[in-house]
Amino acid sequence: MRQSTAAVDYVLPSGKHLMSVPTDPSTIHLYIGTGNSANSPWTAQINNQIVRFEEIGATAAAIRDKMPIDNQPQATVILRADKNVPMQLINEIKQQLRQAHLYRLVYGASEMQ
């Protein structure tokens, strides 16, 4: 069950044949959307915490390290990013997650109408 609420505004990209991802204690929710940041048009949120982009990997790793030891290898980041976020920013976030040894990444999307 998701324990975070998005504090950033985002519009998910849409797609066909989407699958539901079960949430469990080893899930980290990452939102990228518009927010109140003066330095960037985009704001990042991990679970219920607003973070700077350069802190995403470290913050996600800290959350993973607080998980029970049995859940840490299965830690999964669910990324819900606004459809207008530049792909370069998404790639930088993915690189930070790799450096933090968080290799399981799921992208959020909405079903096409």
Question: Would you mind describing this structure in some detail?
Answer:
There is one protein chain. With 113 residues, the protein is an alpha/beta fold. 21% of the residues lie in helices and 27% in strands. The protein contains two helices and seven strands, in the order ββββαβαββ. It has helices at residues 56-66, 87-99, and strands at 14-15, 27-34, 42-46, 49-51, 76-81, 104-107, 110-111. The strands form two sheets. A five-stranded mixed β-sheet has the order 4-3-2-5-6, covered by helices on one side. Strands 1-7 form a two-stranded parallel ribbon. Strand 5 (76-81), helix 2 (87-99) and strand 6 form a beta-alpha-beta unit. Helix 1 (56-66) crosses helix 2. The protein is globular. The model has no long low-confidence stretch (mean pLDDT 84).
- Rg: 14 Å
Helix and strand run: EEEEHEHEE
* SS summary, helix count: 2
Task: Determine the mean pLDDT.
Answer: 84
The computed structural class is alpha/beta
Strand order across the biggest sheet? 4-3-2-5-6
Shape: globular
Q: Which blocks of ≥5 consecutive residues have pLDDT under 50?
A: none
- Measured as a percent range, the helix fraction is 10-25%
Strand content: 25-35%
Q: Strand count, sense and closure of the main sheet?
A: 5 strands, mixed
